[in-house]
Design brief:
This protein is α+β, with helices and mostly antiparallel strands and 577 residues long. It has three domains: 96 residues; 92 residues, 2-Layer Sandwich (TATA-Binding Protein); 252 residues, no CATH class. It has eleven helices and 23 strands. Strands 4, 6, 10, 11, 12, 20 and 21 form a seven-stranded antiparallel sheet that branches. Strands 13, 14, 15, 16, 17, 18 and 19 form a seven-stranded antiparallel sheet that branches. Helix 7 packs across helix 10. The longest helix has 30 residues. The protein is elongated. The C terminus is likely disordered. Keywords: Cytochrome c-type biogenesis, Membrane, Transmembrane, Transmembrane helix. Its main location: membrane. It is found in: Membrane. It is a multi-pass membrane protein.
């Protein structure tokens, strides 16, 4: 074996002592059969290896992509239904792959659980080994320090014991764990690297636990509220509600709030005309004690009440309309929320009169008025009826009229913003077309045949949609994320290294000082640090002066004459020959 190979092997053996990673055992292909227990052990070693943990983490990230791109049932059921209607071929495939319920799917849960087990199985032995290293002292110096990546040496007149004591004080002053082992001082520093590594992986487990807690105990619901209307945090008040499998409705925080006013401002000119500038919902809320408080909910600035957060999601307009029957009796009066279909809040919806209306024969009949609303109307003859600006600059309401059965009494769920015309008949105008009219605020549309009228009142209210959620794992997830960043920073920027200082007496009686350093990874800072340590120690144990050279021969000094009998003997004749 060559000297280079021997040096590399020694460095590898010394470097292996710096690692807390569990050793992976390998099995030769020609060995005996593993057996059931052997295969279980092999599978466990593979599952708990860092390589498999990284693969599972990557798969988990990939699995979250469709959850962000494809509409989810637990987020927006309406978008899921719309997607299925628009993609009749893809929708069944997505259903089989559970892509509309990614985060509760079998395959995502399997990756999640395997990653959880892998991280725990990886961290526990590493933590145990690292704890053992903390209890032990740094290892003694190798026999040949010259083979270390960073090395220096000099000779000093100080005694070896003095050099070792000075080195021990210096290293401890630099926050090294140091002790004297034989003829050398062994020191180690940079344990925060391993702490950061373990902290990062523990933080991943904390975030996984937080995610699981949030999914199991969460509650989330939506509510559309018109100005001057309110909401109480009970299950019956929600428009839609979703919760985790371990959530109980008794855990809903007892609070309520009222929407006093919604304010939206927009850029009025320039290339960004119509861009939202301010969305604010002024509310009055109260907790279980009944004390009322005022608050403002903005986008990304939720209202927090007793562990629940109220987010502002969207907004729109709710024109106030009045419906009267043929006799002039008022059968409906109120604000009707309409859903926006573009950025300028062109909105659609239905005015439904379910009770109180009778036709001219006295028969109970239900009315439906499909509505098309624009906050800023360009005017007749200026293109289609779409809004030119999201604010209420020139509002207009287009209505058509139907009568019959709204199909709301059959017990089947129905979209309140759509009209089921299967049992409805349209009112017709003089030309036999569906009766419709565009109204400005204050105008009235009179139905044919004395069937009544509908008035677009001058008052136009705004509505806001809120999401009320309880996420018990959010704080834990935040703590895990911060800990993961701190641990990752420690594992990347802190270098674990060892330093040895050997001081022994040489053959000529002069003390020889050797210093060497070894880092877990190659770094330019290790030689620099060793040079700084050597400079500091050299000040306390300076280099010894070199021995004086032998003086050259010259004229004999007085008194140096040879004594009688000291003359050299005459050369032997035979030797000369």
């Amino acid at each position: 074996m060559s000297k280079t190979e021997t040096t590399a092997r020694d460095e590898a053996e010394a470097g292996a002592q710096l690692s807390t990673a569990p050793r992976e055992e390998t099995f030769s292909g020609g060995g005996p059969a593993l057996g059931v227990l052997g295969w279980i052990r092999w599978f466990w070693r593979q599952l708990t290896s860092m390589r498999v943990a990284l693969i599972l983490l990557f798969l988990l990230s990939l699995g979250a992509i469709p959850g962000s791109l494809i509409p989810q049932n637990n987020v927006d059921d309406l978008k899921v239904r719309t997607f299925k209607e628009q993609h009749e071929v893809l929708a069944p495939v997505y259903d089989r792959l559970q892509l509309f319920d990614v985060y509760s799917s079998v395959w995502f849960s399997a990756i999640y659980i395997l990653l959880f087990v892998s991280l725990i199985g990886c961290i526990v032995p590493r933590t145990w080994q690292f704890t053992g290293q903390l209890r032990n002292r740094p290892p003694a110096a190798p026999k040949r320090l010259t083979r270390m990546p960073a090395y220096t040496s000099w000779r000093t007149a100080a005694e070896p014991e003095e050099v070792r004591e000075a080195a021990l004080r210096m290293l401890r002053g630099r926050r090294f764990r140091a002790h004297t082992a034989g003829d050398a001082v062994a020191a180690e520093k940079g344990y925060l690297r391993e702490v950061g590594n373990l902290l990062f992986h523990i933080a991943l487990i904390v975030m996984l636990v937080a995610f699981a807690t949030g999914q199991l105990f969460k509650s989330e619901g939506g509510k559309l509220i018109v100005e001057d209307d309110g909401f109480a945090n009970t299950l019956s008040q929600y428009d839609d509600f979703r919760s985790g499998s371990l959530f109980s409705t008794d855990e809903l925080a007892p609070f309520s709030f009222r929407l006093n006013q919604f304010t939206g401002t927009y850029e009025s000119s320039g290339p960004q005309r119509g861009t939202p500038r301010t969305f604010e919902a002024d509310v009055t809320y109260s907790r279980a004690d009944g004390v009322k408080k005022r608050g403002v909910i903005r986008v990304n600035e939720p209202l927090e009440v007793d562990g629940s957060k109220v987010y502002l999601i969207s907004h729109g307009y709710a024109p106030v309309v009045t419906v009267k029957d043929g006799s002039g009796k008022e059968v409906f009066h109120g604000a009707v929320p309409l859903l926006p279909i573009d950025n300028n809040i062109t909105s659609t919806g239905v005015v439904k009169v379910m009770d109180g209306y009778r036709d001219k024969t006295g028969k109970k009949v239900q009315l439906g008025f499909p509505a098309f609303f624009v906050p800023t109307f360009a005017g007749k003859g200026h293109g289609q009826m779409f809004s030119e600006f999201p604010a209420l600059a020139f509002p207009a309401l287009n209505l058509s009229a139907y009568h019959g059965d709204l199909r709301v009494d059959g017990g089947l769920p129905q979209n309140v913003y759509q009209l089921n015309t299967s049992k409805m008949k349209p009112f017709k105008d003089a030309n036999g077309e569906i009766f419709k009219k565009t109204l400005l605020p204050g105008e009235t549309m009179t139905l044919p045949g004395g069937a009544g009228s509908i008035t677009f009142e001058k008052e136009i209210k705004e509505w806001a949609s809120f999401q009320i959620s309880q996420q018990p794992g959010n704080g834990l997830a935040l703590a895990g994320a911060i800990a993961a960043i701190a641990g990752l920073a420690g594992s990347l920027f802190v270098q674990r290294r060892r330093v040895w200082v050997r001081a022994v007496r040489g053959d000529d009686g002069v003390t020889v000082v050797e210093m060497a350093g070894l880092g877990r990874s190659e770094s330019a800072k290790l030689p620099e640090e060793l040079a700084d340590l050597a400079t500091t120690l050299h000040d306390r144990a300076p280099t010894a002066p070199e021995p004086t050279a032998t003086e050259p021969a010259g004229e004999p000094e007085p008194g140096d004459e040879p004594e009688p009998g000291d003359e050299p003997a005459p050369a032997d004749e035979g030797a000369e020959k």
